[in-house]
Amino acid sequence: MQFVEKKENKKCRKHHYVLTLKYLSDISDIRKMEGYIFDIKKFAVHDGPGIRTTVFLSGCPLSCFWCHNPESRLPLDADNSNRMVTSEEILEEIRKDTALYDESEGGVTFSGGEPLFQFDFLFDLLKLSKKAGFHTTVDTSGYASSEKIETIASVTDLFLYDIKILNSEKHKEFTGVDNKMILSNIKKLAELGKEIIVRIPLIPGYNDGDDDLKETAGFIKKIKGISHIDLLPYHRLGISKYKKLDLELKMKDIWPSDKEKIYKAKNLFEDFGFKVGIGS
Q: What is the 3-state secondary structure (H, E, C) of 69-112?
C-alpha cells in the first residue's frame, strides 16, 4: 500500500499533514474481518448518489429518543436481529449489483446504528469496496475519535453527516452523548476536503424550533465546502420495533410535523444559501 502526503489548506487551525490513500495495490494488506450487521438494503436511492446497496452495521453509542433502528443498539453477540458476517461476504453481496452502480453512478453506503462503532470492520469494508472500484459513502453521527474519522476519510468518497442539535445540553439529554466531538469532526472532514451532505432530523418539539434551526444553519454555514442539507422529517415507522424488542418508547406521544412546518424549515435553510432536500 502506498501513501502520499498532502498539505492542508493554510487556513486550517493547525498546520499539519494528512495521509491520503493513493491507491490500494496490495489486497493482502486488507484483513478479512468479521463483524455484525442487522440489515442490507438493495436498490437504495436515498443514501447517496445513484442506485446503492446500503449495509447497516450494528451498534451505536447514541440513544436518540427518536431512533427508528433501535435494534442497532442491542448487544452485538445476543440472540437478536444482529448477525455476524465476514467482510468478504458483504463484498460479494455488494458486487451483485455492479451493473446498476455503473449505470446510475451509484455505489455502497455503510450506515447503522453508527458504523464507526465497529471501526475495524468498517475500515476493512471500505478498503475492500474501494479496491473493487465502488463509490463509498458513510452515514454517520460523527461520534468517534478524530483519528478514526481521519482514517475512515481516506477511503470514503462521501459523508452523510448527522447534525441533530447545536445546544450541547439538549443534545446530551436527547441522545445520551455530548456533541463536542461531533461538531469538531465535521470541521475536520471539511478541512480534509471531503464531500459532506449534512442530514438534520426534524423532531417536533425537540429541535425544530426557529432558534435551534437558525443556530444549526449558522454553524454549518461557517464550514467551508458544505452546500447541501437533507432534512429528515420524523416518522413513526419504527414504533413496532420497540414493542417487539420490549424497549422503552420515549416518542409515543410525538407525531410527524405537517408539510407547512417542514417546508418552513426548508425555506429557513435555503435563506442561509443551502441547497435543501427533504428525505423520506
A: CHHHHCCCCCCCCCEEEEHHHHHHHHHCCHHHHHHHCCEEEEEC
Three-state DSSP at 241 gives helix
What mean pLDDT is predicted for residues 11-24? 35
Residue 207 has which C-alpha cell? Answer: 429541535
Segment 105-139, tens digit of pLDDT: 999 999 999 999 999 999 999 999 999 999 999 99
Q: Strand 228-233 to strand 195-202: parallel, antiparallel, or no bridges (unpaired)?
A: parallel
**2-278: which CATH number, 3.40.50.2030, 3.40.50.2000, 3.20.20.70, 1.20.120.80?**
3.20.20.70
Q: Which residues contact 186 (CB under 8 A, 6 or more apart)?
A: 142, 161, 163, 196, 198, 223
For residues 200-239, one letter each, b for 16 or more C-beta atoms within 10 angstroms of the residue's C-beta and e for the rest, the string is bbbbbebbbeeebbeebbeebeeeeebeebbbbbbeeeee
- Residue 123 has which C-alpha cell? 475500515
Beta-carbon contacts of residue 136 (< 8 Å; ≥ 6 apart): 107, 108, 109, 110, 126, 129, 130, 155, 156, 157, 158
| Helix, strand, coil share of the chain (percent; to 5) | 35, 25, 40
> In 3-state terms, what secondary structure has residue 129?
helix
